[in-house]
Design a protein that fits this description.
Low-confidence stretches: none
Order of helices and strands: HHHHEEHHHEEHHH
Mean pLDDT: 89
Number of helices: 10
Number of domains: 1
Number of strands: 4
Helix content: 40-55%
Structural class: mainly alpha
Bound molecules: zinc ion
Shape: globular
Strand order of the largest sheet: 1-2
Length: 269
């Protein structure tokens, strides 16, 4: 295996402290926001415990509930604003690039979804763990969906604690790994076209290329070769729409349908 580094425990502690201090833009509300996030994390852990004990899946809406939250005590505290704040912090850390393909993120919330690295539908216990959150582009988010792409899925599922950085031996983790040590990309950007070629350098990087980045590369070429389609997609992504609105839901539905359609076409390329 090629040499690579993982984030240190001290750096993780510093990250968590940073998020704790900055998870809401209005400092006067910070304590209440922190308390709310902790309460939601406790719900997620309880749901995980229940599922492990054979109680079945009883709550699949924790993330959506978080988004729709409005504090009964202070209407300025909403889940939407908390999410926006978290998105801004992580996006800045990623230099406004997608955590997987490293293409620039567009300036619309719906075009830069918060990505659960271990999908919250499977790893409910990590739904609100900041270490499990990253920002991706819509293409990577749609392609990754609920895939896990690790042989450690069973082990990761059973524990309520977030896996150590060193446990991600075959899966690229955007928060724990250094991108440049795992993936090398070559990108040509002209006035009208953009072509990206990715090469995996480690087992994690090769895994990411095989499952995700090769598809993104093909998708980019496919869209660039269809100028009418490209223009329509750009128009859709430029739309400003309120989170949770009918317009945003329609855009998300389009993205899923587009992903499914191109998946079939590009598999044959
Ligand atoms: Zn991407």
């Amino acid at each position: 295996m090629a040499g690579f580094n993982t984030i240190s425990k001290a750096a993780i502690r510093a990250l968590l402290e940073k998020y704790h201090r900055n998870c809401f833009s209005d400092g006067a509300c910070l304590a209440d926001v922190q308390q709310y996030i902790q309460s939601m994390a406790a719900h997620a852990i309880a749901e995980h415990t229940l599922r492990l004990s054979g109680g079945g899946i009883t709550n699949t809406s924790l993330w959506n509930n978080f988004h729709d939250y409005v504090s009964p005590a202070n209407s300025k505290i909403t889940g939407k604003l908390i999410k926006n704040c978290i998105r801004e912090i992580i996006e800045k850390e990623q230099s406004n690039q997608c955590c997987y393909c490293r293409r620039p993120l567009l300036n619309n919330a719906h075009a830069k979804p918060i990505e659960h690295i271990l999908p919250h539908s499977i790893f409910v216990q990590h739904t609100f763990n900041i270490l499990n959150l990253s920002i991706s582009c819509v293409d990577c988010n749609a392609k990754k969906s609920n895939h896990v792409w690790t042989s450690h899925e069973g082990k990761f599922r059973r524990t309520r604690h977030y896996p150590a950085a060193t446990a991600f031996t075959d899966m690229y983790h955007p928060r724990f790994h250094r991108y440049d040590e795992h993936v090398r990309f070559f990108r040509v950007h002209s006035n009208t076209h953009c072509i990206s070629i990715y090469t995996g350098l480690t087992s994690q990087g090769k895994n990411l290329c095989k499952n995700l980045l090769t598809h993104i590369s093909k998708l980019e070429i496919f869209v660039n070769a269809n100028s009418e389609l490209k223009n329509h997609i750009e128009t859709i992504h430029e739309q400003e729409c309120k989170p949770g609105s009918a317009a945003e839901l329609a855009i998300q539905a389009f993205q899923v349908a587009f992903q499914e359609a191109t998946e079939t076409i590009l598999e044959e390329v």
